[in-house]
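FW: tagging you since you asked about this chain on Friday. Here's the raw sequence from the shared folder, copied in full. Didn't touch anything.
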Amino acid sequence: MMTSKTYDETLITDDMSIFVTGGTGSFGQAFVKRVLDQCPNIQRLVVFSRDELKQFEMQQLFPESKYPGLRYMLGDVRDRGRLVRALEGIDIVVHAAALKQVVAAEYNPMEYINTNVLGAENLIEACLSNKVKIVIALSTDKAAAPINLYGATKLCSDKLFIAANNIRGSRDLRFSVVRYGNVMGSRGSVIPFFLKARSSGLLPITDPRMTRFNISLDDGVNMVLWSIQNAQGAEILVPKIPSYRILDVAEAIGPECEKPVVGIRPGEKIHEEMITSSDSPNTVDIGDYYAILPSSGDDVVNDYLAKAVGKRVDTDFSYNSGTNDHFLTVDDLRELIAGHVVKR
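HL: got it, structure written out here
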């Protein structure tokens, strides 16, 4: 029976072959570190990204001489041929590559479509052309009822990965998606921005009502590892995580700073969603996570629950950062920032 308990570390073993797109990003580096901490002699762990400088810098932290199964491969998810070749002999794919800045997407739409949508399709086709067994694609809360182009591209990506289960044929292969909120301390996010701006005495607030979901990098990695072991395929997994108020983040970082309201940026929401009320008929509660299933009727939900420990959510259920039943306090935020951001 599938449960949502913390993953069993013994199930990440030396004989695995894992491929990480966007492997030099915030998540990718944290994921690679966790896998190597558990299995320094893993058969193969491939860091795939298009930035040679970031790969060089990462090689100083994780040298191939110390980790014989570690490989660094330059490439772009826009290049299907490169992906087909790179995935030879790979069992597990974690797809973390994406363009993700909301404002930049509004001004460069085709760049985001080429990477986030067409790149996802290229990866799916490359997995189908090889003997990959498990694909876990990272999503975002902005993909639920999107109002910006970034969220729309990630929603398209999610749909592509879920639909890929329909064309896998007799292959021993499953595609799943994990969707979570703002990663605390990731590059370009509000907490590092506020930490850097604190010395100026000004922390600009987009809107004092604004809330966001919050997850640490460690918990994001835990969720992906759990999903590798437990996902059945064709579901979008959503963690139960706390929210924060933007004013509380500013108070936690710079209580002495002025906090002028500057207005929201193009494509931003006041609150984020991870599950909309329209998703509720095909969403199940499996403990630490929710699973959004394909909207194909009760049989899909019943089949999933036959293998999982869980239950249906209430009709018209939604999961919104503004109505969440768990909010981080200023003290909570200070403790988390000290433990998960400043220490890095």
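FW: The two ends are 37 Å apart (CA to CA).
HL: agreed, and Residues 201 and 257 are 5 Å apart (CA to CA).
FW: great, closing this out.
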